[in-house]
Design goal:
This is HdeD family acid-resistance protein. Keywords: Membrane, Transmembrane, Transmembrane helix. The structure is a single chain. About 75% of the residues lie in helices and about 5% in strands. It is globular and about 45 Å long. It is mainly α. The protein has one domain. A two-stranded antiparallel ribbon has the order 1-2.
């Protein structure tokens, strides 16, 4: 007999959430204290992640040898690993590439928010303000990529870690409180 109720997600704060939240707040402040080091560490982490993910994707592609998608998966894995190697060979250039990509993402996301604002009724001005700020930030990054390279990744990482820490401290982690249960093994 299976339970077909919908899953309910609730937020509840535990002692571990408070501990991890405090640690993340401290880590976020440390990261923001030296964004150049955080940027350097981020570039190396991104480079190694790309190399490992590319190798895994290329190896995985051979599981699809007789089906569609083999060549695309193999090519994607090789390209991803190659990009990771390029980033690791010259971290300064890699940081510049990543920074330009982030600037383009900010511009694209901002334009999307502004366009989307015309299709919503509630919170329209929040979408417009957020979109315009995102376009301005992305534009600044794209106009000044060298100046932004040393700090943008570190600042973004620091702010993200701070926000995650604050979230854990205030509301905790999401937990599934009900929903479909896995079938019992007999």
């Amino acid at each position: 007999m299976s339970d077909t109720t919908n899953a309910t997600v609730a937020r509840r704060r535990s002692g571990w959430d408070i501990v991890f939240g405090i640690l993340m707040l401290i880590a976020g402040l440390v990261i923001l204290g030296d964004t150049v080091v955080a940027t350097t560490v981020s570039v190396f982490l991104i480079g190694w992640t790309a190399v490992v993910a590319g190798i895994v994707l290329a190896v995985w592609s051979f599981t699809r040898l007789r089906s569609d998608g083999f060549w695309w998966a193999l090519l994607g894995g090789i390209v991803l690993a190659g990009l990771g190697v390029l980033v690791l060979q010259n971290p300064g250039r890699g940081a510049l590439w990543i920074t330009v990509f982030i600037g383009a993402v900010f511009v694209a996301g901002g334009v999307t928010r502004v366009v989307m604002a015309f299709s919503v009724q509630i919170g329209r001005w929040l979408f417009v303000i957020g979109g315009v700020l995102s376009v301005l930030l992305g534009g600044w990054i794209l106009v000044n990529p060298v100046a932004a390279t040393l700090t943008v990744l570190g600042v973004l990482l620091g702010v993200q870690v701070l926000v995650e820490g604050i979230t854990l401290l205030t509301v905790g982690r999401p937990r599934i409180t009900s929903g479909p249960r896995p079938p019992r093994m007999a």
